[in-house]
Amino acid sequence: MAEAPHKYLHAFIAEATEQLEQLASELVRIEQEAPGGSLWDSIFRRVHSVKGSAATIGLSAIVDIAHAAETLIGKLKARNAKPERTHVDLLLQATDGLVQEVQHASGTAQAPREGEKAPAAIAARLSTASAALPDSFPLAAVPKAAQKVVADPSLPRLDVSFALSKACQAPGARSLIVQRKLKALGTLLEIDPQPTALMQKKGGARVTALLATARPIDEVRAAFDGIPEVEEVEVRLSPPPTASRPPQPEAQPGGAVRTVTDAPMPDDGRTDATVRVRAQALDQLLDQAAEVLLGIARLREAARKLPENASGVFEAEIDRLRRNARDLHGRVMNARMTPFSSLTERLPRAVRDLAHRLGKEVELEVQGGEVELDRTVIEALADPLTHLVRNAVDHGLETSAQRISMGKSLRGLLVLSARRERDKVLVEVSDDGAGFDGERLRQRAIEMGTLAPGKVGEITEQQSYELAFLPGLSTREEATDLSGRGVGLDAVKAAVEGLGGKIALRSAPGKGSRFTLELPLSVSMANLLLVQVGGELYGLPMSRIVATTEYDLSARGGEGFEARSLAVMGQLVRAYSLAKLFGLPSLAPPGPRPFAVLEVDGITFALSVDRLVGQEEAVLKPLFPPIDRIKGLAGTTVLGNGRPLLVLDPRGLHELAEASQRMRGAA
Amino acid sequence: MPQRRVLIVDDALFMRNTLRDIFAGAGFSVAGEADDGVQAVNLFRDLKPDLVTMDIVMPYKSGIDATREIVQLDPNAVVIMCSALGQESLVMEAIEAGATDFIVKPFRGEDVLAVVKKVLGE
Asked: Which of A263, A336, A519, B28 would suit a FRET pair with A475, their CA atoms being 20 to 30 Å apart?
């Protein structure tokens, strides 16, 4: 053990952890890869890279394992045959051993590394396996990245850079148009990022390109005039290449350290440089940005008490400050965006191990790995997603023998996908297994007393599947230790809803099932309408407010009012009393009473309140136990005056209102 | 400047009407309207418009295939794809097929006109 930690130990650990995660997921795929394919190159490169860095720092145990693994990989690759499962198992063990050593170096693992898990023992097993294989030709040098476009060296090189406007809704398509334009002007040697890498991203990205052309700079610049949504175009002569540019490190975010792109760059013309930032530092930044916003809100509050002639100036300045702070908050939020792939990287290994233990063949397909979500969402999703995947392998997918007898393909298919839809991300976990057993679920629900036997006829087959989300309802008599004990689909549902999301299940007997998780892109700022009920303030998300109105109910039955219809903008909508929904006294004087008109899932409804207080922007914080159990609450926040505020969830309120309607109807 | 002539292609009447209003209000002449890709190519051949707005997902022939054929008829044809949010890969396919530019639904009149004026160099 080194006495003083190496200056870059932290960076090494972050990088090696990423490399090893990737390595594990590639090893899982190698059994399906054609012999000698490019995946072997990547696997070799990762082990090689970890070995090199570890040697620099002096972590000899890592070097020993990596070296032995590298030799085995080299021989397997040269063999030009599919690897045997034992070899892949061995390499996965080596990866585990490397992870363990990296954790040891970081001080996060103190467990003794003895017996078969000792580095020397792992290296010895790898060497034995290598020795049993015939000698190979020395491995070719680590292959270079994608082939470079070549151009007449005598042509001038132009550095071109531009930004896509923030409003740009299809940055991939937009930058493809620019790419086509540049190609028409000369030989496009580089463009970074590639248009496809910008797909489904937000606008605002900067793109740089290197163009070899005989055309004058002005003509190249003028070519941008006919392209919408492109800003800050810069075209300048590129300095002659003295040495080849260093390759850009591949951004492979994941784990505790992520790569931040999009940051304002120094004026060296390269705008795609990245810098590693500890995730914790970003969290702190976000907290501080939120604090600044809170401070500004308090200032604004205070400025209102200033004499008339002074307050104007203050408020204008505070507004400017607030815009800046909001922008800052938004940027930090963006920097926290993490790709979906960071969640799925570990899954191929888990699926492979679990499937083998159960004697099943499972093919895992991940789609939309590049779709980005806020880190909070990603982190909260890790367990639910793992649970759904394990559940599918354990309960959903059949054994190969069962599948063949049913005329299905030998290998079960498990698909994990993420895609962006407006301000939501849809994550789906689907399998082509046996599907849920509606009858079993109904039986269990009856046994547990959550479903009245008389109601069985009233629920559809699809609704029966949704029973699986009820607490404690598992169709298995006992939970297998594989798919986790104590974590049920009810916990998955709770986790998704805790993020402000929704979960749905579709299933077809014998064909498979699909879970759809609808998640918010980020946990962001909420613009709130403040309302007063029973002497307390509550916040309603402005995004759901369609209108506010006043109505005199005393003329129509007044106090006893529970629910009725109101005419709002020519439309008849249901109206409910917020006070009644929460069992609070209404302190409003008789006479006209204010209503907030909301829309949820296409349904418009009105809520009566005692008073409309105003609007405020706030950072929404998640609910904490025990108030997270109360239906109709979305979160908490702190107002400019320092008072805590409960933020209401319009969807929950509507459900609550409907339920109380039904109860009244039944009574 | 002579009045610019536009061909509007969309299978939804609502979208055609919306686009018609936008263009008519900005001094364009709506030369024709098509509600599928086959009709679009035929009308383009007959009308030789200065500009085509092209929906992507349409019956009989997609906007992408129609664009490819139109660009073959006239390499200088100005075809602007009208896509819904989340169809970026289709838009990119259309650009590869020769589309000049694109607008993303839902759009406002000024968004459409800004793109059109930009690509027509006005």
From this structure: A519
